[in-house]
Amino acid sequence: MKLIIPMAGKGTRLRPHSHTTPKPLLPVAGTTIVERIVETFARTIDRKVEEIVFVLGDFGDDVKKNLTEISARQGATASFYKQDVARGTAHAVFCAAEKLVGEVIIVFADTLFDTAEKVTVDDADSVIWLKEVEDPSRFGVAVQDSDGRITSFVEKPSEPISNMAIIGVYYFKDGKGLHDHIKRLIDNNITGHGNEYQLTDAIDALLKEGKVFKSATVDEWLDCGTIPAWLDTSNVILKKEQQQVDASKFPGTEVIQPVYIGEGAQIEGSVVGPYASIAAGAVVKGSKVANTIVLDRAKVVESELNGATVGFDAEVHGFKGEAHIGDHSVVKS
């Protein structure tokens, strides 16, 4: 089975961090968003993912190397395709058109999700992952019959027809059918919302053919698409995973759980937490850091950070408050 992950988007709402790092490669409590997605499938799906197909934008070889290593850790091979121009979700998937054969899962790397249940895809042509929400008018939703079979999709319903939101994760027993419907959309210039080629239009065509669509529900659906959402999601994961930290390794430092502290981080004379993520090789001295993400090799000195994000190799000296500091930047009071 193949796992197709479109991730060519520019992630503009996560700037400055997404200027230099693709959004799915930003970490949440020490593990990148995309690796957490892959790990979730490895743990919850009743199939082995043999190949991970990444649809990328204009990213360098270091990104491909990172993604190849992530795939290898899950026992899968990696392959890469490029989306030069963003023309919608269906177009992004179709950039890997030759991989749309046999069993495929498509997941958009905007969110994290989790479920305690093992997901089975038997006896269905397609499985759509759903989450119950309070305000379905903000989402595309699936309408189901009493047997749990999906009967229709509605984009941002104005009437309370369903509260089961589509989270952007899809299984297809045979990707060829999806391939053909996306090709039909593109060949005939059939666009949807935003004048783009929408995956939901191709999926709806499959449904109207009589294909059996079933659902899988998730317990958690966490957004990572903006800086506040990235911080909030990080905090949820920190609380859930509860990393055990030996505070005695960090002279004169108080550690207030939940926190994540990466390998080789140097912390002294500081208060870290609650809800602080200090990445590998980071340095924190004489500072208070809470509700904050400090990325690899960054330095925080004589500062008080709350609600902040500090990029790779950035430095913060004598600053108090909230700031979002890009990679290799230096901030001094």
Task: Walk me through the structure.
- The chain is α/β, with parallel strands linked by helices and 333 residues long.
- It has two domains: 2-223, Spore Coat Polysaccharide Biosynthesis Protein SpsA, Chain A; 244-332, UDP N-Acetylglucosamine Acyltransferase, domain 1.
- 21% of the residues lie in helices and 32% in strands.
- The protein contains six helices and 28 strands.
- The strands form seven sheets. The chain has a seven-stranded mixed beta sheet with strand order 5-4-1-6-11-8-12. A five-stranded parallel beta sheet has the order 14-17-20-23-26, with no helix packed on it. A five-stranded parallel beta sheet has the order 15-18-21-24-27, with helices on one face.
- A hairpin with a 2-residue loop joins strand 2 (27-28) and strand 3 (31-32).
- Helix 4 (175-187) crosses helix 5 (199-208).
- The longest helix is centred in the C-terminal third of the chain and has 15 residues, at 227-241.
- The radius of gyration is 21 Å and the shape is elongated.
Summarize model confidence as the mean pLDDT: 89
CATH class of the largest domain reads Alpha Beta
Question: N- to C-terminal separation?
Answer: 53 Å
Spatial sequence of strands, sheet with the most strands: 5-4-1-6-11-8-12
The residue fraction in helices comes out at 10-25%
CATH topology-level fold name of the largest domain: Spore Coat Polysaccharide Biosynthesis Protein SpsA, Chain A
Query: How much β-strand is present in the residues?
Result: 25-35%
Rg from Cα: 21 Å
The number of helical segments is 6
The helix/strand class is alpha/beta
Which ranges are low-confidence, i.e. pLDDT below 50, for 5 or more consecutive residues? none
CATH superfamily of the largest domain: Spore Coat Polysaccharide Biosynthesis Protein SpsA, Chain A
Shape assignment: elongated
Largest sheet, strands/sense/barrel: 7 strands, mixed
Number of strands: 28
Number of domains: 2
